[in-house]
Each structure stands twice: as structure tokens, then as C-alpha cells.
Give the backbone structure.
Amino acid sequence: MTRDVGPRDSERSAASEGRRAFVLCLSASVVVVVALLGEFVLAAEMFRAIGEVGRAQTLYGVFVVGLLALVAQAALLHTLLLRPLRAALARERELVRALDERGHRDGLTGALNRIAFEHLIVRELETLKRYGAVFCAVMLDVDGFRRVNEQLGYETGDRVLVELARLLAVNMRRADLLFRWRSGRFLVLAAGIDERQALLLAEKLARLVADHAFRDGVRLTLCAGVAQALPADGSEQLMARVKSALGLAKERGPGHVVGEEDSAVSACDQEAGKNSPSGRSPGTDATPGAS
């Protein structure tokens, strides 16, 4: 029975090959050093035997042969040992890079994952504090995605998510970062734009998704919440605001896009409603059943 070779097997194989080539290279280097010492001894003997013509010629011949042997050995060392060693080390570096890349990518959609977010958000917030490089967080959530899984099956749901991630990625700017947050929820870190511009980006993505015909006849809409990062923010504060905006968007119904300012106004209205004698928000119709 054959066994699939996984990334860990490949990593061990590359490391083993690299160690083997290193040992061979080290052994050959020791031989070269010993041969060089022998050449120096011969050279010293040649100087001592300058007055003895026959002996000097013999030593000179041995010296030349030794030099030629060293040259041949160096060529052999490069061809058989150093080149494979470099190749093994290059494969090992590539494998480490690939493993690291897989560790920061969602296994299904290929978008960045939460682990990558935790690393990158620190960098983005630090850049904002030091250099004033503004950016926004845009959280996108597919409306009623659970129904897709329940009615069409999880395999169809997975295919839809892959297609959705590609659709979002190709319609974002190169500087923007796309993360899969969970299930049908994605996050975009949009660099260099304020909340107004980020709202336009979110509305554009929402329209593209609504107009797109997914595989298996699936049609989707998504809600979006937008929040601009502030210099005093930590990742928790920023995410709390963008989730609040997304929550308000979902309350308003499928396909809505809400910014942080709208979310703040709504929170103020709710607080005013709690404090009003009737327990309703200002301006709410008192007619039973009115929305």
C-alpha cells in the first residue's frame, strides 16, 4: 500500500539530503586540506634540495602532479558535492517558505487567514501611528449562507466560497488584503483610503456579488460594515467597530453597506430610546406594528 507524501515528509527528506551533502562536502574538504599540507611539505623539500638536481626534479614532478590532482579534486568537489548541496539548501528554503505560506492561508479559499491577520494588523496599526498611513477595515458577510449549505450541500457551499473569494480578490486593489474570517465572512484591509472611499469599495464588491451568477445556479448578496482605523486603536477596538457596523447592516437587511458613522448614529438613537419615557427612539411612530 502506497503512502501519500505530505509536507512533513518532504521537509524531512530535504533536510536529510542537505545533511548528507554537507557531510560529504566536509569530508572532501578535509582531504583537500591534507593534500595542501602535503604540497607545502613537498615545496619545502624542493627548496632544500635545490643543490641536488635529480632529487629536485623528482620533487618538482611530484609537486606538479599534486597540484593537478588538487585542481581535479576541486572540480569534482564542486560538481558532485557543492552543487547538490546548494540545490538541497534551496529546496529546503523553498519548502520552509511554502509551509509558512500554507500556515497563513485559508486551506479552502486561498485567502489569508486569522493567523496572518494577527501578524499584519500589528504592522498596519504601527504604520498608521508612525507615518499616518490611513487604512480601513471592511467586513463582508454573505446573507443566509447557511441555507446554501443546507439546501445544496456542503460541497456546493465550498465551491461557492472559493468562487466568491476569487471574485473579491480580482476586484480589489493590489495593496488591499483579503482574509477569510469564518464561514461566509471575509475581511478586507483597504490601504490608503478613508471611510468614505472604503464605503465605495464595499458597495462595489456588494454589487459585483449580487450581479454574479455562481456555479450550480447560486445567487448571493452580502452585507458589509466599514470602519476606519485610528492612531489610538488596537486590533480589538478596530474589530469591535467594524463588527458593530456589520451588525447594523445585517439588521437593515440583505445587501446593505454601513459605515462606522451610521453605526455610531444608530447607537446614539438606541441610547436615546432607552432614556425616553416611552422607551422608544425619537421619531418612532407610536402606531402598533409600525416599523
